[in-house]
Design the sequence.
């Protein structure tokens, strides 16, 4: 145990650099996936044939490709088409796109859960589609969507470790580098696990708060 | 003011409106009565474009109602609607519900919209409930807020779709009282209702609809008191003497 604390003092500062990148990747891809997911969801419920078909096809395409393959594609294949991204950019874009499919389905479920009478009431006071969405549907859908959104946040935090496969030195990769150079696997990976857990706990509490709020109504 | 000419409407293979021809004059109160499933609500919903119709013509002040045309927004701001289940926005207060249309559709200045909104809530007897959210109001109060919301658009006519059917019996009166006052003030109203007392007292004309056609129509008192058609007689007997 004493050895563990000794190792901790030595490795934590290095691992914290990885934590920073983990946070950057998670927050960046969360924002991107939220914007894209909302866009796909709005297209899906727009009732306009082309948009509905496009977003449905896109969501299935994204869902059908493993995140790691998507990351490889963006980081290793795109340069062949003249789009060269840094590893960090590629990680954020790849994870953002991958998760936009799940976000979209979550948002769509929230939008479709809103009573049709709400939409009709908005129409009868002369609101168009976008105004109805912005003023009536989305504010009510947020309550329904927040608990699963919180879960997506937790999943993204953990899946940000996949960025290590394209050389982003986030927490998991940082840990692997230290472990392979010091052979102190137990100490290092215990620390890595504890750090992920520490970051997850506030998110878990946030989800619980969202759920309480949604149930209170 | 509202004209319907040979309006047909089907849901799938079921034809719910089989050629409705009717008109509503300015300041007139027309009640539509009839058994459930007869197409009463569908008529209202076609008038402000919540439903499309297959054949015939509907016009409001000469403008053809077409739910897929841009002109539908202008028609909807002239013909408001009050729903059976109120359909208030639960995430906004009573006052916010009332001023939502004036602020965001008509782009009224905020101060003016709020002042008018408060006056309208006072008019329906709910001045002190302005800052309460709908789920905390009784059904009767919610429906009165919904009427204030409809009035806030300064409509030329209001369509009422069974406005008291979802209410507990003791709350029906307060809503009917507000509607009666509107009628006295000269509002053009089309009311789908099962309240025969209201129809008899307030309506100028009554349409009896059954099976998607207008079976009988005329002055309210004569249709309700001396119905000519056997189906009208049968319906009124069932409604007035359910035992």
Sequence:
């Amino acid at each position: 145990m004493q050895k563990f604390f000794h190792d901790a003092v030595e490795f934590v500062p290095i691992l914290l650099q990885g934590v920073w990148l983990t946070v950057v990747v998670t927050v960046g891809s969360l924002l991107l996936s939220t914007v894209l997911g909302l866009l796909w969801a709005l297209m899906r419920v727009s009732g306009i044939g082309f948009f509905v078909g496009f977003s449905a096809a896109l969501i299935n395409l994204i869902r059908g490709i493993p995140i790691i393959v998507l990351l490889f594609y963006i980081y290793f294949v795109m340069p062949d088409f003249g789009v060269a991204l840094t590893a960090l950019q590629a990680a954020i874009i790849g994870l953002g796109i991958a998760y936009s499919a799940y976000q979209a389905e979550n948002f769509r479920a929230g939008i479709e859960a809103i009573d049709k009478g709400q939409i009709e009431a908005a129409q009868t006071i002369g609101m168009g589609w976008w105004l109805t969405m912005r003023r009536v549907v989305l504010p009510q859908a947020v309550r329904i969507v927040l608990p699963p959104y919180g879960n997506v946040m937790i999943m993204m935090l953990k899946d940000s470790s996949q960025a290590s496969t394209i050389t982003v030195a986030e927490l998991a990769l940082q840990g692997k580098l230290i472990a392979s150079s010091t052979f102190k696997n137990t100490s290092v990976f215990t620390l890595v696990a504890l750090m992920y857990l520490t970051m997850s706990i506030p998110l878990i509490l946030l989800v619980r708060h969202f759920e309480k709020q949604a149930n209170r109504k | 003011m509202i004209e319907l000419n040979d309006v047909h409407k089907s849901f799938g293979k079921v034809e719910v409106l089989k050629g409705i021809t009717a008109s509503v004059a300015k300041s007139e109160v027309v009640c539509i009565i009839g058994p459930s499933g007869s197409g009463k609500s569908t008529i209202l919903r076609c008038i402000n474009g919540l439903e499309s119709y297959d054949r015939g013509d509907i016009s409001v002040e000469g403008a053809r109602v077409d739910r897929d045309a841009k002109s539908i927004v202008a028609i909807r701001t002239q013909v408001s609607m009050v729903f059976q289940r109120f359909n208030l926005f639960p995430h906004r207060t009573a006052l916010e519900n009332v001023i939502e249309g004036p602020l965001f559709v008509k782009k009224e200045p905020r101060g003016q919209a709020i002042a008018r909104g408060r006056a309208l809530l006072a008019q329906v007897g709910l001045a002190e409930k302005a800052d309460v959210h709908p789920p905390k109001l009784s059904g009767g109060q919610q429906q009165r807020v919904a009427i204030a919301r409809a009035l806030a658009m300064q409509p030329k006519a209001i369509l009422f779709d069974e406005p008291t059917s979802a209410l507990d019996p003791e709350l029906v009166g307060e809503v009917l009282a507000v509607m009666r006052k509107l009628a006295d003030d000269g509002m053009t109203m089309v009311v789908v209702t099962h309240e025969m007392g209201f129809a008899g007292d307030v309506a100028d004309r009554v349409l009896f609809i059954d099976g998607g056609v207008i079976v009988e129509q005329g002055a309210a008192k004569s249709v309700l008191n001396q119905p000519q058609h056997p189906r009208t007689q049968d319906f009124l007997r069932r409604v007035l003497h359910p035992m």
User: Anything to note?
Assistant: Chain B has a mean pLDDT of 92. DSSP finds nine helices and ten strands in chain B. Residues 118 and 127 of chain B are 6 Å apart (CA to CA).
